[in-house]
From TrEMBL:
One of its GO terms (molecular function) is GTPase activator activity. GO terms for biological process: regulation of Rho protein signal transduction; signal transduction. The keyword Transferase does not apply. This is RHG20 protein. PROSITE patterns: RHOGAP. Keywords: GTPase activation, Phosphoprotein. The lineage of its organism: Eukaryota, Metazoa, Chordata, Craniata, Vertebrata. SMART domains: RhoGAP. Residues 1-169 form the Rho-GAP domain. InterPro entries: ARHGAP20-like_RhoGAP (IPR047886), Rho_GTPase_activation_prot (IPR008936), RhoGAP_dom (IPR000198).
Length: 180
């Protein structure tokens, strides 16, 4: 999924914002969940993006770890950008290795899409609004007002992560997928 999103996302207007066919999404999800081989290259990139967000939402405790939720939310309250980046890097060290690897690929894809935002209309802010709720959620349910405020904070954090991903994850993030 990430490879396809890396290839097609930068040239797709509204990637992660528009959803694909609900019927196709449901059928593909059922096939993937049952272990059936699926060729996503034959499907709409919007369905693939929806499947990927669904995959992220089903990671137990979230890819950024709900246990670190308060720390993630407070990162942007820190001093200058350098201090924020250092805090983020320290938080990343507390994540399981598999989560860190996945995050590097996710932000490699998002960076590639953002670099062509004039074409696809998905700048860091728009991408963050679409993907942030799939990356982190609080460990316990809350009221709609608190949840709305939380999503705003996480979206700002994800926007910062996209805009600074090369400094956070390293410049090689731009070449994780090699020459596809």
């Amino acid at each position: 999924m990430l490879s396809l999103l890396y290839q097609e996302g930068p040239s797709t207007k509204g990637i992660f914002r528009r959803s694909g066919s609900a019927k196709t999404f449901k059928e593909l999800k059922e096939k993937l969940d049952s272990g059936t081989e699926v060729d996503l290259a034959c499907e709409s990139i919007f369905v693939t993006a929806s499947l990927f967000k669904d995959f992220l939402r089903n990671i137990p405790g979230s890819v950024l770890s709900s246990q670190l939720c308060d720390k993630w939310v407070s990162v942007l309250d820190q001093g200058n950008n350098e201090e924020k980046i250092k805090s983020i890097q320290r938080l990343i060290e507390h994540l399981p290795r598999a989560n860190v690897v996945l995050l590097r690929y996710i932000f490699g894809v998002l960076h590639g899409i953002e670099m062509r935002s004039e074409e696809n209309q998905m700048n860091a802010f728009n991408l963050a609004v679409c993907i942030a709720p799939s990356l982190l959620w609080p460990p316990v349910p809350s009221t709609p007002d608190i949840e709305s405020e939380f999503i705003k904070k996480i979206s700002s954090l994800v926007q910062f992560l996209i805009e600074n991903c090369c400094r956070i994850f390293g410049d090689e993030i731009t070449s994780l997928f090699g020459e596809i």
